[in-house]
Design brief:
Blueprint: H1 6-28, H2 34-63, H3 69-96
């Protein structure tokens, strides 16, 4: 595999430091529980991992699969809409219930 250069290592470190500092600022507030802080930090890390995976998949599709760039953007949008409607909204409905 490829090795990370010093600039990319710095970028990874800064992302991790940002998540840690945001978590610490929440943890220092008296009204925030440790569970909420850990959930927030976990969700932030998960979003970073998913964003990175998306960038890697996009790069692979552009190079190895020879998908035209505009078709790739259209497919990303279609998948985003489909996942939001079929996964995210139903999950939020189950977790949060009706907003009535």
């Amino acid at each position: 595999g490829q090795h990370l250069g010093s600039t990319r290592r710095l970028g990874v470190f800064l992302c991790i430091a940002g998540v840690v500092l945001a978590g610490l600022s929440d943890a220092l507030e008296a009204s925030t529980s440790l569970r909420q802080v850990m959930l927030g930090m976990s969700l932030a890390l998960l979003s970073q991992a998913l964003g990175a995976a998306s960038a890697v998949a996009e790069e692979h599709l552009l190079k190895a699969a020879s998908v035209p760039p505009m078709r790739l953007i259209a497919l990303e949008g279609a998948w985003g809409i489909a996942l939001t409607l079929c996964v995210v909204y139903p999950a939020m409905q189950l977790l949060l219930g009706n907003p009535e």
